Every structure is written in structure tokens, then in C-alpha cells.
Amino acid sequence: MNLDLREYSVRTDLAVESKEIAETAHGGPVPGLNEQVEEQDGIKITRLDVTNEAASRQIGRVQGHYVTLEVPGLRNQDTELQEKVAAAFAKEFTAFLNKIGVGPGAKTLIVGLGNWNVTPDALGPLVVENVMVTRHYFELTPDQVAPGYREVSAIAPGVLGITGIESSEVVQGIVERTRPDLIIAIDALASRSLERVNTTIQVADIGIHPGSGIGNKRRGLTKEILGVPCIAIGVPTVCYASTIVNNVFDLMKSHFNDESDDGNAPTKQIMGMLNDLSESERLGLVKEVLEPLGHDLIVTPKEIDEFIEDVANVIASGLNISLHEAVTPDNVASYTH
């Protein structure tokens, strides 16, 4: 059974969510997806490989490798947990680089996508502020660079509405002049799940398409376009109002079933026909009601100001540890602004 996820109007940038949607529609595991899941210290790590074109079509994701860290506790602003997440992210990112064949000497360009004037979209620029850049030392004083560091440069190219230039065009010009061996692009994502907003980090080796999660499909940053391997790092900071309403229906169904000794009877009485609709049908109904009113908003939690700073530091610290052998979880604080 071949499914095309274009039939589903749920918008998400997360591979694990696309897999969940496909498995629900497929009625079980999707052939061609290899998944490893482990959980420790409140950090759930999912490694997902999309191995063939059939699986790619069914989940609506490009063939490649995806790693997702889910940490519900990140919302609590727990400094000790943030340090553990940074170390876990660094470990996973190092393994990810090894898996796709990127060596320790690869010259790296970090690209912070997004609008620094809009808090939920400022993740990329904030990470760029906090990563350790070294290219100028390698260019100007190479004999003074100590062992354990690699050549790293970083740029926050802004957004089309500010610069009038596509981010991909800016990065392409930089790649042509500086010739990095690897690009790491960081961007804010959209999620279909309230629980994953502000708590999830995704790494993928398939590049990135700015705005794809909110329906703006524009020229992306990929190996095919730039000629350089491109790794995408993203955190969901927003979801659609229609998605939230749709999730509420699921929560209500679960609540009514848990509160009753009579199975689905109370749910059917209270929710009526909504109880029998599939997720895509229900979401389509919600969007049909909201969009004419202009109410299908892109929503972010009120704590986004604190969170975006915290998760940017987590990612920057993890990258500093992973990219530079001289930086460790014990001394990373001295390298992160």
C-alpha cells in the first residue's frame, strides 16, 4: 500500500511525526524505515533511517538519516539538564558526522537561518552568536592554532523580507568563496504536537528548506544546490492553531475514555460524529472553519523568550564540543558566549 502524505494537511518538519502519521495510515510499521530508540536521564533519542524511495514517499521525507532528541524537561529551565542535553547532543552529532563520512578536519560553515527580530524564528542567529568560530585564526595565524580545533566559520544571512536576497543565494556565494567541506544549517521548525514544541532537537543530513513547515517552500540549502554536504539542525518553536484544536480533540477522547468504565460510549455521546472522523478529516474540518475567519494562526508558547536563549545555548555548546576536540563538556562554558 503506497501512501502520499500530500493527502494529509498536518504540517510538520519532524521526521518522527511524519513516521507516526504514516504508520497510523498504514496500519503498522512502514517498510524501509529503520528506527532505534533509547532513553536515559529524561532524554529520548530516536535514530531514524529512511532507506528507500517507497518509504520516503510514504512518510513524505527525503531519504537519509534523522536523529531526534526529545527532552520534555527542557521547559523547566533546569541548568543541569541543559548541560546533559548539550553533552548528549554533542555525542549524537559526532556519531552522525562519522556515519555520513565527515572527518575531524572538515572545514565547517555554520548557517543560522531565521529572523533575529522575531523571537520564535531567532534560533539560528542566536546559535551563531554562541558558537566558537576559528576560520580567521587559521587564515591569519595558522602557526598559532593549537591542536584540537577545526576551521569553523558562521553566518546569519537574515531573511528574504529583510535582505531581499534568498538565504540560499547568500550561502551559495559564501561557499564559492570560502569552500567549506560541510555546512550546518540551524533553523526553527514547526511541529504537529504541542508536547514537542520547545522540547525537541532534530538533526538530518538532507539539508533544509526555509519555511517548509509553515507552507513557504523556497530554494533550500542542500548538497544538490550548494555542492557541499549540508546537515540541518532544527527545533520546533511553533505549531498551527488548527493543529492545536485537532490535538485537543484527541486529548478529550482520551480523557473521556479514561474517566468512563463503559469504553467509548461517553465519547460518542459527547463528541458525536467527530469521534468517527480520521485525523486528516478532522483537521480538514477545523481548518475549513478557522481559515475563512483568519484564525489559523501560527502559535508559540508565551515562554518562548527564555526558551529560545536556553536551547540556542544547548545547541551551540553541543556543536562546540562536537566540532573541536579541545572542547569538552567540562570546559565548554568558557567557549560559549
Automatic annotation (TrEMBL):
GO biological process: proteolysis; spore germination
Database matches in SUPFAM superfamilies: HybD-like (SSF53163)
Keywords: Hydrolase, Protease, Zymogen
Record text on subunit structure and interactions: Homotetramer.
Entry GO MF terms: metalloendopeptidase activity
Protein name: Germination protease
Function: Initiates the rapid degradation of small, acid-soluble proteins during spore germination.
Annotated Gene3D superfamilies: HybD-like
Residue positions assigned to the propeptide: 1-13
Post-translational modification (record): Autoproteolytically processed. The inactive tetrameric zymogen termed p46 autoprocesses to a smaller form termed p41, which is active only during spore germination.
Native source organism of the sequence: Paenibacillus mellifer
Catalysed conversion reaction: Endopeptidase action with P4 Glu or Asp, P1 preferably Glu > Asp, P1' hydrophobic and P2' Ala
Record family assignment: Belongs to the peptidase A25 family.
Domain of life of the native organism: Bacteria
Gene: gpr
EC number: 3.4.24.78
